[in-house]
Amino acid sequence: MKTINPQRRLFFGAFAAFGALTLAGCERLSRTDWFPKILGAGETASEGAAHLLTSRKAMAQEFTVNELSPDFRSNGTAQPASDAYRALMANGFADYRLEIGGLVERPATLSLAELKALPSRTQITRHDCVEGWSAIGKWKGAKLSALLEAVRPRPEARYVVFYCADPMAEDGTDLYYESIDFEDAFHPQTILAYELNDAALPVKNGAPVRLRVERQLGYKHAKYVMRLEVVSDFAHIAGGKGGYWEDNGYQWFAGI
Amino acid sequence: MPPAAIVSTKPVGALYYRHRLPVRTMHWINVVALTILLMSGLNIFDAHSALYWGKSSYTGAGPIFAIGARMDTGGNAHGVTRVFGHEFDTTGILGVSTDRDGDAMGRSFPWWATIPDNRWLSMARSWHFFFAWVLVLNGLAYIVWSIASRHLARDLAPDRNDLRSIGQSIRDHLRFRHPTGEAAKRYNVLQKLTYLGVIFVLVPLVILMGLALSPWADTVWPGWVDVFGGRQSARTIHFISAWLLVGFVLIHIFEVIISGPWNHLRSMITGRYRVKR
Prior knowledge:
The complex is a heterodimer. Chain A is of the alpha+beta class. In chain A, 29% of the residues lie in helices and 25% in strands. Chain A has seven helices and ten strands. Chain A starts with 5 loop residues before the first helix and ends in a 9-residue tail after the last helix. The model of chain A has no long low-confidence stretch (mean pLDDT 95). Chain B is of the alpha+beta class. Chain B is 48% helix and 14% strand. The chains are: A alpha+beta, B alpha+beta. At the A-B interface, helix 1, helix 2 and strand 4 of A face helix 1, helix 2, helix 7 and helix 8 of B.
């Protein structure tokens, strides 16, 4: 066997040892309390840059009917495992009521028919999952801005929290939730969707109502929305990070 | 410190101040950033281990590239990589590999190639976006410094003699012949063209295709992503250009090893390179 020049062997050895040490270091750092906070600076910088480079009303790209995905993929919950949801589903969501409260002058409760009576928007948009895939769907829904204007948020209000029907834990607790700020809440493309591809929103995609917040990744688009709460901050809600996935380490700003 | 030839007492050649401090510093920042970006990127890929061409993943056509796992009739897991409909058994590396304890598990890339070493999308994204900023800021600093210090004009821009010697330079590289004396103080023409291609084409491309994946960045000018075939095409280009960078690094390290690794390593740490007579 041909021997490797000792100088080169030393070089390879140093290289491999350095690499192994670095890797082991990265593993340890991921599991500390402090280092992920430093890494988080990258995502904070991205959020800052995103707001700096785009206007408040910058629109997400819209597509044509020819570009619709043949079947809009379901991800996460495909059917909420709760008796309350099954009961709503059993009579076609006739008993569904969307509650909206919190820091508002006029809390309200809306039936599906009342929600559909609000000013609506129809849009063909691309859904980008944090996992990496995209699907294109045609959504119709009530403009969240119209709903918010009707309930009149108080001056200190800053975020809208969406409480959902789908339990994320096996024992039926840990309901999915999400939150967005007022910039997104009043964005023209932010809607409470009740139709997908010209049909009633299917259960697997969030029936009867899901959020569309088009400049952000899929996990922000809460499905099975039951209640909206207008708040000044969300530190007191669940894990305090503003959403189910946020409480599990994902970023609240999901624009990247 | 100004470039200066320092006469060594050893007869083998003089130490020449070849790399200035900003180049050395930014080079090593790139080493760290690119390594972590690649490895955290491979972890992110594992969350959806398929690549497509087009605006979405679900167009009716399948993926053009996918890494997966399949059980055979004997109950053994096989790693399967599909490229344009052709299947390859890649058990051991892609699709199915062994974990630290030697147990087979379904992973796009082996644990030793990813950061973190287990499937952990949120943490991989944190690593990736932090070091993406490091790469971008380091790259911008490098370009500003290279123009201001005339590094770009003096050391990287090929002159007429360089361009005339391309054929000779290709022959020299293929024969693993390396310049000595005065010529060893400068980058050769293939080196110049490669560095320029990496600095001004490949790295900007990989960054731009990363930005194309951000639904918020897409709103800067709705539709700009379609210039590259759409978001899923951009994801594919991001992946391919990352591997082209890996290819560049492998050739770069190969050239370093065959032309005196310690001499090169020293010159990238202290700046001083021993020129052979």
